Fold this sequence. Notes:
This protein is mainly α. The chain has one domain (46-155): Rossmann fold (3-Layer(aba) Sandwich), CATH 3.40.50.1820. It is 41% helix and 9% strand. The chain contains seven helices and three strands, in the order H-H-E-H-E-H-H-H-E-H. A three-stranded parallel sheet has the order 1-2-3. The protein is globular. The mean pLDDT is 93.
Amino acid sequence: MLAVNYRGSTGFGKAFTNAGNGEWAGKMHDDLLDAVQWAVAQGVTTPDNVAIMGGSYGGYASLVGLTFTPDTFKCAVDIVGPANLNTLLATIPPYWTGFYKQAIKRMGDPATAQGKQWLTERSSVTHVDKIRKPLLIGQGANDPRTNRAESSRSSTR
Length: 157
C-alpha cells in the first residue's frame, strides 16, 4: 500500500499545499499515477494489480482514477468522495465562509461560467460512462455534500 503525498497535501509547507490549486483531476492525479509507475518500476506491484481507495478527497481521487484513467486501476473504493464538484461547493453552509473561500481557491469558482465549466469537467459524474472496473462506494444517505443520487449514478455502470 502507498499513501501518496500528492501536491495540495498539507504538512509540507504552503508552497506544496498551494501547488494543488486548480489541480483537482489534474497534476494532483498525475502525482498518484507517478506513484503507481514508481511502484511498478521498483517491483512493488505489477500494472495489473493496482487498486485505488480513499475517503473524502481520496474518494474523489478514486472516482477520478476510474473515470479519467480507466485502464490504470484494477478497482476502486470511494468513501464519501464527491462525484460532482459543483454540488459539493453548492452545499457548503454559509457559516463555513473561510472553508468556502479556500475551496474555490483550490477547486474553482462556480460563480463564473469558466469556473462552473471547469468544475463540471473535473467531476467524475460527468465521465461515469468511462467506468469499466469494479467500484465500491461507501456513502451516507443523508450526507449533504456527497449527494446520494450522484454517488449512485457512478455505481449503476
